[in-house]
Amino acid sequence: MPTDIMWVIGGPQGGGIDTGANVFMRAVARAGYYVIGDREYFSNIKGRHSYFMVRVSDEPRGGLLSPIDMLVALDAESVFTHFQDVKRGGYVIVDTSTFNTRLDQLQYMEDEFKERLREFFSKAGIEPTVKGVINYLRGNGINVLTIHYADLLQEVKKRLHDIDLPSLISRYSNVVMTAYSTAIMGLPIDYVFKGLEDVFTGRRGKLLEYNKAIVEVVYDYAKPIKTNISLPPIKRDVRAIIVNGNEAVAIGKILGGLRFQTYYPITPAADESFFIEAHNIVSLDPVTEEAKAWRRRASWLFRPKMRYRQ
């Protein structure tokens, strides 16, 4: 059966949404799947709701899907914001500590959206709490899977004695939830480790050991859970890359013969130029006809700093 699913992770801005999604995308990509991702966030540093949508498929696809197959909710606001977007038969992963959170307690959610939800809850007879939403979802054919953070974190602390437990709650919840989602879809743990290795590099490398230990605990915790979504590894005969929009534009400019570019250093517009500065030499596979043609043109197209390298 073809694989084509929508996976969404949501949580507070600054809560590691981007990291969790990137680990997930790189893990499934290394397992042979095609991925398309899109991040939605507010223009603030911390607190407002943020989410990352990822489409996973076994064939090249264009665009994202609706509704959602799996929602990974790092906080109560993610449940309230996205519960209506999950398809019948889909999955919602939520932490038990959010169960008693009420809609009125969400300080960052827009008032207009809150009012629409109040009207919906009133008409449907739903208690305006996360637990009320969960009961509604289960009554409408949606699978809700709960994680008990306290149990997981205590087990991690046993394995790594030098970790301070309170810091785990805020720093690693994104990896806990992401790993739980890959575990219940049957993705082998080694691919998640590779995803972590791709993301936790440089100065972040010191966190790699901690995150791998957390993933091991989560995979053990999730063993009894089975879902109707399966992500077995796929063997591919071709190499693939993961790039974001800025990187794709930068690569296109380099291959198109860009000689000079000016820019104003502001995020995220500057990211494209930073990529060009760091990767002004582009390697191509010489066995393809396109690469052979490119090599013939490269001798006159680029200055010494921007040159073809086999």
Average predicted local confidence, pLDDT: 86
Spatial gap, N to C terminus:
39 Å
Query: What amount of the residues lies in strands?
Result: 5-15%
- What is the fourth-level CATH superfamily of the largest domain? Pyruvate-ferredoxin oxidoreductase, PFOR, domain III
Q: In sequence order, what are the helices and strands, one letter per element?
A: EHEEEHEHHEHHHHHHHH
Described by the principal axes of the CA atoms, the overall outline is globular
| CATH class assignment of the largest domain | Alpha Beta
Which sequence of strands runs across the widest sheet?
2-3-1-4-5-6
> Structural class, from secondary structure content?
alpha/beta
- Roughly how much helix do the residues carry, as a percent range? 40-55%
Count of individual beta strands: 6
Q: CATH fold name of the largest domain, please?
A: Pyruvate-ferredoxin Oxidoreductase, domain 3
Residue stretches low in confidence (pLDDT < 50, at least 5 long) are: 299-310
Q: Roughly how many Å is the radius of gyration?
A: 22 Å
Biggest sheet details: 6 strands, mixed
